[in-house]
Design goal:
Elements: H1 2-20, H2 36-50, E1 56-60, H3 61-67, H4 72-78, E2 89-90, H5 96-103, H6 113-117, H7 119-126, E3 129-131, E4 139-141, H8 154-157, E5 158-162, H9 166-170, E6 174-176, E7 183-185, E8 188-193, H10 198-216, H11 220-249
């Protein structure tokens, strides 16, 4: 019995530790795998800004092209920059050993990152980098403190600066200006503008996360459609099964 309680405590300790740690609030987004235009833009952003360091080894260019309604020739010419073929996986040429030295750890594969982290986490994380000269890459992140990744989207977003302590940063309150509709308050301010406005950048990140969500579950729409058909079948089958049951049991009752 004593060993049983010790085992239970060992299982629950990580959960308790995780619950005790402060977490930054996440911005919610509604993923739409039916929006092929968004997924196409997201794939373009992923290839241009993410694929140089991160891989998507469980996703093929061709499968994405078919699902997103893009000709294979267009993908081969515009979204594959190396000597890969359209039927190959979305990998890069970065050696993992060297990457571990440069970044402290090898950049993870992103095929299932949306399943691991969640779309809200990714969306908030990619928009929450801020300048921090003490970090090796000169940036830090609200959602992932002391992150070892550079802000690859800085050219689009611009440079954000933090004016709060870490505790205030995590619990920062954001408000919307009723006159302009823009976000006010919070700890992060835009010190240097990027090539996109705040609204354009949010849309770019949304499209990117939408594509990453698709990679994590490329059959989501198909499974939902199939699930609906199965429920309809079960409802119809129930009527006949119930009628058959009454027929079998009418003499017993």
């Amino acid at each position: 019995m004593k060993k049983f309680f010790i085992a239970i405590m060992m299982v629950l300790m990580p959960v308790a530790a995780n619950a005790a740690g402060a977490k930054a609030p996440l911005d919610h987004i509604e993923i739409d795998h039916a929006n092929k235009e968004s997924l196409q833009r997201g794939m373009q952003t992923f290839v241009n800004y993410c694929l140089g360091c991160h891989s998507a080894e469980y996703q093929r260019f061709e499968r994405a092209a078919v699902d997103l309604g893009m000709p294979n020739e267009l993908v081969q010419e515009n979204l594959i920059f190396g000597d890969q073929k359209v039927g190959e996986q979305m990998t890069n040429a970065m050696p993992k050993a060297e990457a571990a030295v440069w970044f402290g750890t090898a950049p993870p594969d992103l095929t299932l990152e949306s399943r691991l982290r969640g779309e809200d986490w990714l969306y908030t994380y990619l928009r929450s980098f801020y300048e921090d000269k003490s970090r090796p890459w000169g940036v830090n992140n609200v959602v992932f403190p002391d992150v070892g990744m550079p802000n690859v989207l800085e050219g689009l977003q611009g440079v954000q600066k933090n004016h709060c302590t870490q505790e205030e940063l995590i619990h920062q309150k954001k408000e919307i200006d009723p006159l302009t509709g823009l976000q006010i308050g919070g700890c992060l301010t835009l010190a240097e503008k990027g090539t996109q406005s705040a609204e354009e950048f949010d849309k770019t990140v949304y499209d990117l996360v939408n594509f990453m969500s698709y990679m994590g579950n490329p059959v989501l729409l198909e499974s939902r459609s199939l699930g609906t058909k199965v429920l309809i079948f079960l409802a119809i089958f129930f009527v006949f099964a119930f009628a058959l049951k009454k027929e079998y049991w009418k003499d017993v009752h």
